[in-house]
C-alpha cells in the first residue's frame, strides 16, 4: 500500500495548486462566515471579498518572499530594515491598490456600491498581524516538512544497513552449502531469487502486504532449514487473517536473523529456533525463541556487532510506529526470546 506523501503538496508544481486552493477556501469562508450589509450582494459582494482576500494575500507573500529569507539566514539587520520598509509601503500604498480594484470592478460590471475608502481602515495593526502570522505559518510548515524528510532519510539509511546484512548472511549460507551438499543448491537459489525479488521491488514502499512479508520470512526460514540439514529444531507457525493488513517491510527479519545467528545449545541438547506469528484484531504478535548454550560467553566485540541489527530495528520501530509497538527482549540461562507487538495499518 502506497501512502500519500503530503509534502508533495508543497513542492513544485503542486504548491501552485495547493496555494490556489487555500486562497479559494479563504475567499469562500469570508462569504459564508462573515456578516455583510444586506446591500452587499452579487458582484458587489464578490468585489469586497476579493479586496479583503487581497488584503491577506499581499502582506503574506511579501513577508515570506522578501523578508523571511533574510531572517532565516540570520541576517537580522537587513531583514528588519526590509520588514520596516515593507510595513510602510503596505500601510501607505495597499489601501490605494484595493481602492483601484474596487474602481476596476465598478467600471467592468457597472456597479456603484463598491468600497473605495480603504485608506480609512486601520491598516497598521492589520499589516503587522498578517505579516507575523504569515512568518509563523511558513516557519512551522517548513519545520514539519524538514522533520518528515529527515525521518525518511534515516529510514533509508537504516534499510540500507539491513539489506547488505541479510545478503551477507545468505551468501555465507550459499557458500557453505555448495561445499557440503551441492544437490540442495537449486532449491536454495530459487528461494534466494524470491528473497532478492522481494527486497528489490517491494521494500521501496513504506508498507507492504503482510502476506508478502510472511512469505518472505517463510523463504528465509526454509533457507536456514536447508542449510542446517535437520540438525536443529526449527518451527515457523502463523495464525490469523492477513487480508488487507499491511506492515513496514523487513521489520521482522532482523529478529529472526538474530535467532539463527546466535542460537546454540549445551552439549547433548538439540538447538532450536521457534517462531510464532499471530494476528489478533489490529495487532501483529511476533515471538521468536532460540536456544542458548548456558556455558557460552560471547566475546565483547562480537556481541556489539550482533546488536547492530536489533538497534536498527528498534530505531525503525520508533520512526514508523511511535507509541504503536511493544518490544521485549529477554535472555535467561538457556533461551533468548523476543516478543514484538505492532499495531497494523
From TrEMBL:
A GO cellular component entry from the record: membrane
One function term, GO molecular function aspect: phosphorelay sensor kinase activity
Key words, A-Z: Membrane, Transmembrane, Transmembrane helix
Domain (Signal transduction histidine kinase internal region): residue spans on this chain: 154-229
Domain of life: Bacteria
Transmembrane segments: 16-33, 76-98
PANTHER family tied to this protein: SENSOR HISTIDINE KINASE YPDA
The protein's name in its UniProt record: GHKL domain-containing protein
UniProt source species: Mucilaginibacter ginsenosidivorax
Amino acid at each position: 500500500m502506497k501512502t500519500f506523501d503530503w509534502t508533495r503538496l508543497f513542492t513544485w508544481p503542486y504548491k501552485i495548486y495547493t496555494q490556489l486552493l487555500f486562497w479559494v477556501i479563504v475567499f469562500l469562508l469570508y462569504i459564508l462566515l462573515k456578516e455583510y450589509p444586506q446591500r452587499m450582494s452579487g458582484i458587489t459582494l464578490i468585489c469586497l471579498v476579493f479586496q479583503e482576500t487581497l488584503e491577506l494575500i499581499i502582506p503574506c507573500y511579501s513577508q515570506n518572499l522578501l523578508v523571511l529569507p533574510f531572517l532565516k539566514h540570520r541576517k537580522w539587520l537587513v531583514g528588519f530594515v526590509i520588514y520596516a520598509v515593507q510595513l510602510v509601503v503596505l500601510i501607505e500604498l495597499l489601501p490605494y491598490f484595493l481602492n483601484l480594484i474596487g474602481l476596476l470592478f465598478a467600471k467592468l460590471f457597472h456597479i456603484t456600491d463598491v468600497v473605495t475608502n480603504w485608506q480609512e481602515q486601520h491598516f497598521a495593526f492589520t499589516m503587522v498581524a498578517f505579516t507575523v502570522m504569515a512568518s509563523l505559518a511558513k516557519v512551522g510548515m517548513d519545520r514539519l516538512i524538514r522533520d518528515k524528510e529527515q525521518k525518511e532519510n534515516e529510514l533509508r539509511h537504516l534499510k540500507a544497513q539491513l539489506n547488505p546484512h541479510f545478503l551477507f548472511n545468505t551468501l555465507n549460507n550459499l557458500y557453505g552449502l555448495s561445499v557440503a551438499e551441492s544437490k540442495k543448491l537449486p532449491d536454495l537459489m530459487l528461494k534466494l531469487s524470491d528473497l532478492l525479488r522481494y527486497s528489490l521491488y517491494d521494500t521501496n514502499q513504506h508498507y507492504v502486504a503482510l502476506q508478502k512479508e510472511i512469505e518472505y520470512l517463510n523463504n528465509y526460514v526454509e533457507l536456514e532449514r536447508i542449510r542446517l540439514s535437520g540438525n536443529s529444531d526449527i518451527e515457523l507457525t502463523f495464525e490469523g487473517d492477513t487480508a488487507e493488513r499491511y506492515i513496514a517491510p523487513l521489520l521482522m527479519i532482523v529478529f529472526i536473523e538474530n535467532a539463527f545467528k546466535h542460537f546454540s545449545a549445551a552439549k547433548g541438547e538439540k538447538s532450536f529456533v521457534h517462531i510464532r506469528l499471530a494476528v489478533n484484531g489490529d495487532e501483529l504478535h511476533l515471538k521468536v525463541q532460540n536456544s542458548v548454550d548456558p556455558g557460552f560467553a560471547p566475546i565483547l566485540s562480537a556481541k556489539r556487532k550482533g546488536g547492530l541489527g536489533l538497534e536498527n530495528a528498534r530505531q525503525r520501530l520508533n520512526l514508523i510506529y511511535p507509541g504503536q509497538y511493544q518490544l521485549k527482549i529477554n535472555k535467561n540461562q538457556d533461551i533468548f526470546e523476543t516478543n514484538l507487538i505492532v499495531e497494523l495499518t
